[in-house]
Amino acid sequence: MTTHVLIIGAGAIGLSSAFALAQTGHRVTLLDRGPAGGESTWAGAGILSSLPPWGYGSEINDLIRRGSRLWPEWAERLKRLSGLDPEYLPSGMLALDIAECAAAECWCREHDWPLAEPPATVARLIGRPSQALWLPAIGQLRNPRLAQALRQTVQTLGCDIQTHRAALNLVYEEGRIAGVATADGLLQADVYVVAAGAWTRSLLADNAAGLDIQPVRGQILLFKAPPGLLPCIVYRNGHYLVPRADGHILAGSTLEFVGYDKSTTEAAKDELLSFAHDLLPELDASAVVRQWAGLRPGSPKNIPTIARHPHYGNLYVNSGHFRYGVTMAPASAEILARLITGQGESLDPAPYAWPNRQLDKV
Ligand SMILES: Cc1cc2nc3c(=O)[nH]c(=O)nc-3n(C[C@H](O)[C@H](O)[C@H](O)COP(=O)(O)OP(=O)(O)OC[C@H]3O[C@@H](n4cnc5c(N)ncnc54)[C@H](O)[C@@H]3O)c2cc1C
């Protein structure tokens, strides 16, 4: 029997979940109060790695590694099915000023993150004496194009996407969800998934107890430079530059705990300008064409929750991917699809179970 799944939130996580479920023959409806992919997913830099890879435990590393390995194939499929190019680019990443470079190198070798001698175009960026590693397999996606390609693909696969329609609240019955209230009436399905990013807790209200997902603002500056000025992603002490194929270069990002405030600030602009010019002085000649901010779904230790609700049998959450939701999206979608359908290959869901804290209310 076909299961009808209603996903609330059409960001990278909701759209990828819909993609995974639609491919296994499920009927999927996606609901978003804005456009598809218009929040954190639009604002992100699209680096397909954690920063840095050796900075995290196995729960994060497993999702990152599987996600980043799946993306090249997913990107090809999205391109074929949608006719839109999410601009997957295996640009590689140069990590600079690494505090414990020998340990990081060891970690990469043990955890199957390929390292190599940088080519001359990349090596010139190392400049002054620096503890550096070149990770040639790390790729990137262009977020707004990714969201468009995902949206078009899931529609091609038969999913119904209802944008500019907010979920006001879930309707709870004894042990299950009976529907989602919207301004235009009740929407009903067999299974419900909350993938509402930084808004997941507010939507679940009292039934979010145990989930610690909160907005964390990130700001980015966009330069327009001649194509090829920067050959790869460069990461240094929490900041990065990301070159797009058409010459745009992103400088990111900040980590700010300011609630749901999405405004940009002069302080962040100064911080990112100073980082970008120090790393790549040639950027002096390039114009800053845009600055923006997005709200990441922040979670403790960056561990997302991909789980069934402890008290409502047909309610699932796929949220809290914090700094790496685009990278993790395919691997998280696989886990969710397996939890719902009992089928398919995925990582072990156990590390992403509902946080083990008392619910205030049942
Ligand atoms: C500056 C910045 C840089 C980043 N860089 C990277 C990076 O390089 N690599 C990486 O992997 N990740 C990066 N991220 C993180 C990544 O963007 C996020 O983890 C990811 O986008 C989260 O996706 P999501 O679908 O959970 O959330 P979102 O994209 O925020 O989507 C949630 C959706 O839910 C909808 N919604 C909320 N409430 C409701 C409601 N009541 N009813 C209906 N719809 C609702 C929203 O409108 C939204 O569209 C970055 C983020 C930022 C801000």
Notable features of this structure?
single chain, about 350 residues, alpha/beta, FAD/NAD(P)-binding domain, 6-stranded mixed β-sheet, disordered C terminus, binds flavin-adenine dinucleotide
Provide structural commentary.
- With 362 residues, this protein is α/β, with parallel strands linked by helices.
- It has a domain at 1-89 and 140-211 and 301-362: FAD/NAD(P)-binding domain, CATH 3.50.50.
- Helices cover 29% and strands 23% of the residues.
- It has 9 helices and 16 strands.
- The chain has helices at residues 12-23, 40-43, 58-82, 101-110, 120-123, 143-156, 200-204, 266-279, 325-341, and strands spanning 4-8, 27-31, 93-96, 133-135, 160-162, 169-173, 176-182, 185-187, 191-194, 214-224, 233-236, 239-243, 248-252, 287-298, 305-308, 315-319.
- It has a 7-stranded mixed beta sheet. Strands 5-2-1-9-16-15 form a 6-stranded mixed beta sheet.
- Helix 1 runs parallel beside helix 6, helix 1 (12-23) packs parallel to helix 9 and helix 3 packs across helix 6.
- The longest helix has 25 residues, at 58-82.
- The radius of gyration is 20 Å and the shape is globular.
- The chain starts with a strand and ends in a 21-residue tail after the last helix.
- Residues 8-14, 31-34, 38-41, 43-47, 166-167, 195-199, 203, 218, 220, 252-253, 294, 296-297, 319, 321-327 line the site of flavin-adenine dinucleotide.
Question: Secondary structure elements and their pairing?
Answer:
Layout: E1 4-8, H1 12-23, E2 27-31, H2 40-43, H3 58-82, E3 93-96, H4 101-110, H5 120-123, E4 133-135, H6 143-156, E5 160-162, E6 169-173, E7 176-182, E8 185-187, E9 191-194, H7 200-204, E10 214-224, E11 233-236, E12 239-243, E13 248-252, H8 266-279, E14 287-298, E15 305-308, E16 315-319, H9 325-341
Helix pairs in contact: 1-6, 1-9, 3-6, 3-9
This protein binds flavin-adenine dinucleotide.
Flavin-adenine dinucleotide binds next to helix 1, helix 2, strand 10, strand 14 and helix 9.
